[in-house]
Amino acid sequence: MSIEERINKIINEIPKGVTLIAVSKTRTLEEMEEAYKTGIRDYGENKVQELIEKEEKFYKDVRWHLIGHLQRNKVKYIVGKVHLIHSLDNVRLLEEIEKRYFESGETANVLIQINIGKDPNKSGILIEDLEGLIETCEKCNNVKVKGLMTVIPKGTEESNRRYFNEMKKIYDSLSKKRYNNITMEYLSMGMSGDYKIAIEEDANIIRIGEGIFGKRAYNNI
Ligand SMILES: *Cc1c(COP(=O)(O)O)cnc(C)c1O
Question: Is the distance from the beta carbon of residue 190 to the nearest atom of ligand 1 less than 6 Å?
């Protein structure tokens, strides 16, 4: 199947309110252009360097999503270039985002990434630390929290569903509270292998790489 065919197949399967992010990490601009031609305007990158290089060269009417771990010393490069940062997971990173966006007079839209599987090798905040991060978010002026994101541990359909469902519960409970600067609009979860389950558990942003572009070959880069 071509990139176009894969995208059309996915688009036909997902409900209208779900945003499909084409995860374009390691992909060439030519491959991304194939996605662009089918109407895809949301692109996800996991590295700051790659995102800013592509942002400069690619079509200007696209929305860039930073979906990978964000180091504090890289925040300054993405100000004004990213539609949504999916990977806020600690207070010091938040403080750096607030500072850099304040200096530029911009507002950062972010999702809090939750390490729902408590996987020591994954980024994301642990649920027990969430409250502290939220308290600091409430004091920000240049950061707006728009929802939650997760990358779940590899597992069975059953464990995938359980993690997605836990995320939805956290999302719903935060939705019911009234916070400064924090609204629950986006639940970003589901990748190539599990996006259908994620949507059943109420994801409204899915992030798909290989399911659109085919297998990634990291060693070609
Ligand atoms: C790579 C990546 C994806 C996409 O993964 P696929 O399995 O290629 O669909 C989604 N989310 C994050 C955070 C990623 O790093």
Answer: no
At residue 219, the pLDDT reads 59
Beta strands in 18-60 (DSSP E): 19-23, 42-45
Integer Cα distance of 156 and 215 in angstroms: 21
pTM listed for this prediction: 0.97
Q: How many CB atoms lie within 10 A of CB 151?
A: 23
- 134 in Cβ contact with 110 (< 8 Å): no
Residue located nearest, by CA, to atom 7 of ligand 1: 192
- Among 106, 102, 64, smallest CA distance to 86 is for 64
What is the whole-number distance in angstroms between the Cα of residue 25 and the centre of ligand 1?
Answer: 9
Closest ligand 1 atom to 68 CA: 13
Least confident of 74-78, 118-122, 157-161: 118-122
Q: Does domain 3-213 have CATH number 3.40.50.10490?
A: no
pLDDT of residue 221 exceeding 50: no
Residue 15 CA to residue 95 CA, distance in Å, equals 36
The bridge status of strand 108-114 relative to strand 42-45 is unpaired
Give the contacts of 88 (CB within 8 A, at least 6 positions apart): 70, 94, 97, 110, 111, 112, 113, 133, 143, 145
* CA trace torsion 210, 215, 218, 221 (10° rounding): -90
Spatial distance between the Cα atoms of 70 and 181, rounded to a whole number of angstroms: 21
